[in-house]
Amino acid sequence: MNETEALIHKLRRELEEHNYRYYVLSSPTITDRDFDLLMKELEELEAAHPEYHSPFSPTQRLGSDLRNDFEQVAHRYPMLSLSNTYSEEEVSEFYDRVARSLNDDFEIVAEMKYDGVSISLIYRDGRLLRAVTRGDGSRGDDVTINVRTIRSIPLRLLGDDYPSEFEVRGEILLPIAEFERLNRERELADEAPFANPRNAAAGTLKQQDSHIVAARKLDAFFYAILGEALPCNNHYDNLRKARSWGFKISDATRKCGSIHDVFAYLNHWDVERKALPVGTDGVVLKVNSLAQQSALGATSKSPRWAIAYKFAAERAVTRLKSVSFQVGRSGAVTPVANLEPVLLSGTTIKRASLHNESIIERYDLCIGDMVYIEKGGEIIPKIVGVDTDARPAGGMRRVSFVKHCPKCGSELFRPENEAAHYCPNRWECAPQIIASIEHFASRKAMDIRIGPETAEDLYHRGLVRNVADLYGLSLDDLLRLPRKGDRSAGNLFESIEESKSVPFERLLFALGIKHVGETVAKRVVEAYPSISLLRPATTEELEAVGNIGKHIAQSLVDYFSDERNISIVDRLASYGLRMSAGEGPVAPRSSKLEGLGFVISGTFSKHSRDAYKQMIEQHGGHNLASVSAKTDYILAGENMGPSKLARALSLGIRILNEDEFLSMLTE
Ligand code: IVH
């Protein structure tokens, strides 16, 4: 081995050791900055010496340029699920059943049931060979490239007493704090927030781009090892061994010698789990001895030697003050419960969605009722019951669903087979029009800088009554809006101008046609690449081409058969918006940014984010989703994310403002 190779090996070992100390033991021995410097050194060496590339190098944790293909892989041992229990009685029954079947002494290992995504890892000769999701239990998706980015998962094992090949199973999780950070970021970027940490972890694990996965700080706990030559004859000791090889094994795992020990564990963790940094939804109880496990065996679905005990969802009780009704873009009217503020799982709850009339009817809700609310794994709490005993003897006012639109007074209708009520006054009902302007302007649609307040102002001042009116606005009109200074009015004016070159498929999405979301719009445009082809299409034709379903086809035909829509589309065309595909991205203009990686962060005043992205590509550079050692420049606008800034500084990446960037192109 020459000197360079030896240095690469040394750096890899050191970095893995620091990863382990930081992410598994939570006791780092060097600063983040020193860690980043070591990493950069290794990256540079590896880049200069591709002959020493290794998929097990800690640099792989930053994400790989290889695309994930999520190939389906068969599990060697099926990934069973657990039968669930919800009460101490059911736990006792399980315990007695095991005792009867074994007719011998036994121990139970109690563990936390982590609420994430199950994963199976195969290690050969101490190296991570493959990571596969549970899938249908017999086959799952190969997500190795993404899993390599999870810092608490060892790429190479510690020690030397591991079997030459074995499988380890566990749960991949997004820590709660990281989930909240991610959702804040998504809200700022106008993206739908994840409903809960489990969904966020699952969505992240299926990302095509592993750099995004690397930026999201997933974690993993392991709860089983499987294989032919395991070191010990019981589950508990095998987990301890796995911990010594570098896996993160929960400190909350306990051996229980009696049912009383088991109950004590359940009661303790029902409360203490709330302080854990990751989500749990119960406890898993397992027979410790492997010989006893195989004697007990399994059904086709779950083992007989283990059960899950699920914690009751956290509930709170509070008073229903009133119910208000909101009108959405489609005209759907949603009831919202206004509650006396109450604390539930660490957040103060003031409102709960009632979805539609059926919940009001099911609980026979009255104003002033004491209602039970639950978080049920979702962020928006729901009403799950009413304390009818708490009702006073005298009559109370029942909640009734409004018959008329709370905003425009039109009579509501309820389509057959739908639970929702709608306001039919699409063309004159203010909240519907304002929401359609907001939708049209949103990032994924026309990317015009209009927030909810500006949309309201534009509507209430009579400046915009439909989306085509946006293009008739003068700079003077915008300057007269409240809260708009020269600069923000100028930005808005410019972003309206720039939106004229948004591709046709995004315009089609922006029109807000029922059922035509982003993906459907793309599909429709593939089959009908221009408005003149799409407009006369019949439902039969639409259904016949390219995967367009009955409801979508009908909705498109309805849209284009309304003269008022046609007039909007014609006006948009007259303002120069793109009405056909193929007027797509412009050919490269220069190679000034050849090979350079950019991350864009913050908000800009001269051009939109998308315009900057396009410029980067037109000049040979590429856009990166997150800051890593592969980033050459950060194009920073106002309010750049503090974590990005810190990371950029620690990696010594150059930060450019708009002017500096633009002068790179003109130099
Ligand atoms: S043991 C054959 N232990 O819960 C037994 N599972 O329905 C296999 N889970 O998808 C599971 N924490 O991913 C086991 N400590 C734990 C667990 C755990 C979470 C998940 C697991 C599986 C589901 C079982």
List keywords for this structure.
D-amino Acid Aminotransferase, Chain A, domain 1, 5-stranded mixed β-sheet, alpha+beta, binds 2-(butylsulfanyl)adenosine, OB fold (Dihydrolipoamide Acetyltransferase, E2P), 5 domains, Helix Hairpins, 667 residues
The major sheet is characterized as: 6 strands, antiparallel
**CATH architecture grouping of the largest domain:** 2-Layer Sandwich
Number of strands: 21
Average pLDDT: 89
Q: What structural class do the secondary elements suggest?
A: alpha+beta
As for the number of domains, it is 5
Residue share in helix: 25-40%
What percentage of the residues does DSSP assign to strands (E)? 15-25%
Task: Supply Rg.
Answer: 29 Å
Number of helices: 24
Bound molecules: 2-(butylsulfanyl)adenosine
- Could you name the CATH class of the largest domain? Alpha Beta
CATH fold topology of the largest domain:
D-amino Acid Aminotransferase, Chain A, domain 1
What is the distance, rounded to the nearest whole angstrom, between the alpha carbons of the first and last residues? Answer: 46 Å
User: Low-confidence parts, pLDDT < 50 over ≥5 residues?
Assistant: none
Q: What is the CATH superfamily label of the largest domain?
A: DNA ligase/mRNA capping enzyme
Instruction: Give the CA-based shape.
Output: globular
